[in-house]
Amino acid sequence: MSTQPIIRFENVSKRFGEDTTVLDGVSFEMERGKFYTLLGPSGCGKTTILRLIAGFSEPSEGTIYFNGKSVNQTPANERQVNTVFQDYALFPHLNVYENVAFGLRIKKVKKPEVDRRVKEALKFVNLDGYENREITEMSGGQRQRVAIARAIINDPEVILLDEPLSALDLKLRSAMQYELRELQQRLGKTFIFVTHDQEEALAMSDEIFVMNSGQIQQSGTPIDIYDEPINRFVADFIGESNIVSGVMIEDYLVEFNGKRFECADAGLQPNEKVDIVLRPEDIEITPVNSGKLTVTVDTSLFRGVHYEISTYDQDGNEWLVHSTKKAEVGMQIGLDFIPENIHVMRLNESEEDYDARLEAYGAADED
């Protein structure tokens, strides 16, 4: 298999008019056969990237490569890409068979071949036997499968998915996450998925691109993104986080809340100001005299598998804790954590700076 990236963006920008920049000098590569997720808040540029890959829009600056060749001027119908839209864009007046066959009929494929490929695509998405069903009679999950069957029937190299789960209820949405991931692995195609749902991205992806304000803030595996965010935005956007200001005293020693703690980070300047991240699930509740911090319980909500406990310390910092232990509102408790769970972030650190620091100190190999 070729090691050449299937998609590469090189300093790509997209502007509307003189004052609106939706993508600002974005560069990245995507490998063949992986599940990628573009994750970020509304207006961050993730759907714009999808439209640029599909050929529905052209970059204002920069170059988009597909299999090593520029596709800036390649029309959408000549790209080996198909899109599953947020509303699925199915034809309500056509039945399941005709919706899936639509692209083949446009290409004037002969009827026996259309029959074979439609049945094959429907069987692949577990809809064999539904050929004559009307779209209006299908559930949300079934409609999504029809849209996917229509997307894969022409054997594209890349399948784009623009928030296709957003209209589904929570239970069906969770089920479809597993189905989509399993489908991608069976097909062996490159999937590029757009969402603003962090849990969805973490559950489904080989690699996540976290976006904000037209730029990629960080890219990496779900574990990398969650465990080692490079800045406050990523830490705050990916899951719930406790973020406080601190000072990196020296390698493996950080100060916050007026105390010094051992940590696993190195490579910053002595006494450099930093942000500290502690995930709620990485904090243990202890008796006051056993904890590294002493806090007061503000609220405690039962979430089924854990209690979500909001606390505050004497300096007014809020600390969120996920624990199987119950804590009553108003009581003082101790909080404990191990050095490996203290994540130190350089202020305004770029992804390149962060990668260089990991390499210099061998942290990437240790992970």
TrEMBL record:
Keywords: ATP-binding, Cell membrane, Membrane, Nucleotide-binding, Translocase, Transport. One of its GO terms (molecular function) is ATP binding. This is Spermidine/putrescine import ATP-binding protein PotA. The complex is composed of two ATP-binding proteins (PotA), two transmembrane proteins (PotB and PotC) and a solute-binding protein (PotD). It holds the Pfam family TOBE_2. It comes from the Bacteria. NCBIfam families: potA. Part of the ABC transporter complex PotABCD involved in spermidine/putrescine import. Responsible for energy coupling to the transport system. The gene is potA. Belongs to the ABC transporter superfamily. Spermidine/putrescine importer (TC 3.A.1.11.1) family. It catalyses: ATP + H2O + polyamine-[polyamine-binding protein]Side 1 = ADP + phosphate + polyamineSide 2 + [polyamine-binding protein]Side 1. Gene3D superfamilies: 2.40.50.100, P-loop containing nucleotide triphosphate hydrolases. Its EC number is 7.6.2.11. Residues 7-238 form the ABC transporter domain. CDD domains: ABC_PotA_N (cd03300). InterPro entries: AAA+_ATPase, ABC_SmlMolc_Importer, ABC_transporter-like_ATP-bd, ABC_transporter-like_CS, Mo/tungstate-bd_C_term_dom, P-loop_NTPase, PotA-like, PotA_ATP-bd.
